[in-house]
UniProtKB/TrEMBL annotation:
It comes from Didymodactylos carnosus. Gene3D superfamilies: 1.50.10.10. GO terms for molecular function: beta-glucosidase activity. GO terms for biological process: carbohydrate metabolic process. It holds the Pfam family DUF608. PANTHER family: BILE ACID BETA-GLUCOSIDASE-RELATED, NON-LYSOSOMAL GLUCOSYLCERAMIDASE. Residues 4-234 form the Glycosyl-hydrolase family 116 catalytic region domain. This is Glycosyl-hydrolase family 116 catalytic region domain-containing protein.
Length: 269
């Protein structure tokens, strides 16, 4: 089973998958060791999905197992990686362990697009991370005109730990924008996505050969890359946000109606 394989990669039995310090994740040139913001967040999202599937299948034993595993993973994730403002890149002692990674909320992004809210990631931590990323990785590099660089140091410099940490990934920038929309950071979201869109279409003129990665100096690589299709998550985020606003308005109207009906008519005039 896939989950059995995942358990074998939790080397310290703390509930969170551990990176091995080699190319074992999509940032295969930007190595991670131990618990990491990216893989740990995806792990939590996967455990939530496994728990929900077990519930649908009425498999109580599996549901209990995944629920306990999820609870343990969430605790370890926060204990090892949360630094008060954002999630550290990983739990190692490397020079770049506390880098600010644009993709640190990837797991949360997936869950929000599936209709979940803050069952597994606290809202205040999500907002703090997004605000930090926007300040350093978006506005701090190119003043928001080229999207979000994958990594910056804690003092806001471009992270040079690897080629990939220095790059702006088109799909990651669009995913970040979608997450911002779902968290009501709409202006920040569209400024961020406008930067990468304008660069790809108008500045470098790649149109439907959208690249995977760009550098802040205008270089790019891997045209026609699939990750840029994350732009559709922006559409989904808008739809979800609109639906949630309509639902909230309906609830408020119903509450107002109940309040009005419970107040004596003589007090309404």
């Amino acid at each position: 089973l896939a989950t059995d394989k995942v358990k074998s990669q939790d080397t310290d039995n703390d509930g969170i998958i551990d990176n091995g310090g080699f190319a074992d994740q999509t940032y295969d040139a930007w190595k991670a060791t131990g618990a990491s913001a990216y893989c740990g967040g995806l792990h939590i999202a996967a455990l939530r999905a496994a728990f929900e599937m077990a519930c649908i299948m009425n498999d109580q034993n599996a549901a209990n197992e995944y629920e306990a595993w999820l609870s343990k993973a969430k605790q370890s994730y926060n204990d090892k990686l949360w630094n008060g403002k954002y999630y550290d890149y990983d739990s190692s002692t490397s020079r770049y362990h506390d880098s600010i990674m644009t993709d640190q909320l990837a797991g949360f992004w997936y869950l929000r697009l599936c209709g979940h809210h803050y069952e597994d990631f606290e809202k205040d931590k999500v907002l703090s991370s997004l605000e930090t990323i926007f300040k350093t990785n978006v506005m701090g590099v190119g003043n928001g005109l080229i999207g979000a660089v994958n990594g910056t140091t804690k003092d806001g410099q471009i992270e040079t730990a690897s080629m990939q940490s220095e790059e702006i990934w088109t799909g990651v920038t669009y995913g970040l924008s979608a997450t911002m929309i779902m968290e009501n950071l709409v202006n920040e979201a569209f400024l961020t996505s406008e930067g990468i869109y304008n660069t790809c279409y108008n500045v470098v003129g790649l149109a439907f050969q959208t690249p995977e990665a760009l550098m802040h100096d205008g270089r790019f690589r891997s045209v026609g890359y699939m990750r840029a299709l994350a732009i559709w998550s922006i559409q989904k985020a808008i739809e979800l946000s609109t639906a949630n606003k309509k639902k909230d308005l309906q609830i408020r109207n119903e509450d107002d109606s109940k309040l009005s009906s419970s107040v004596p008519s003589r007090l309404l005039h």
